[in-house]
Amino acid sequence: xxxxxxxxxxxxxxxxxxxxxxxxxxxxxxxxxxxxxxxxxxxxxxxxxxxxxxxxxxxxxxxxxxxxxxxxxxxxxxxxxxxxxxxxxxxxxxxxxxxxxxxxxxxxxxxxxxxxxxxxxxxxxxxxxxxxxxxxxxxxxxxxxxxxxxxxxxxxxxxxxxxxxxxxxxxxxxxxxxxxxxxxxxxxxxxxxxxxxxxxxxxxxxxxxxxxxxxxxxxxxxxxxxxxxxxxxxxxxxxxxxxxxxxxxxxxxxxxxxxxxxxxxxxxxxxxxx
Length: 274
Prior knowledge:
Largest sheet: 6 strands, mixed
Shape: globular
CATH architecture of the largest domain: 3-Layer(aba) Sandwich
Strand order of the largest sheet: 2-1-3-12-4-13
Order of helices and strands: HEHHEHEHHEEEHEEEHEHHEEHHE
Number of helices: 12
């Protein structure tokens, strides 16, 4: 009888401790092995899909959430819905105080040259006086658009206007260009309604443009202002050394990814920085 009671007690002990110790340990380990990252489709999600198996071999499941705008990925990261995002450059991150106070760059991967496009005109010289030009409505990319136009002689900005220049900083505008500001994702669609539009590289690619062939003008690798526009992987501050982020960094900055970029975007519309 004593042996029987002792056996029952032992079984009850095992049953009682199982939910307390075994299940949380499993959940904790599982969470550590999943990396959820938000990205715009081209080229960011494309590059992430390329390295999924590489991370899987290290026991990390890469979950990619695609976005078609530049606001939601940062908001989702701050809320904790994502572990990282991959779509923006450091200048864009710095343009919002809430984002820059909570988030930081983990590492840079590539540059997507910014260009001026038109469905109505085939060259810069064809753009008429008073033409309507669409530019991004966020300060970092709006300034980038104006710097591109200045570099190609269409406008002149006042000294010290910097990377976040606005149309109020224009001191010379020989063609009397008119500007309208739109969300970056809307710029390709605006080409039916405007004379020209400055478009971010990823949205130009998504719209089916070949940036080097289809743009009227485009940033060059030697443009003096392109360094702040390197596309970066962003995390919450303090998470830069997370082992999952370090594994992601090693996989994205690999020869495999560089070769893929060089072979896929031979037109220079995506350029690796490593």
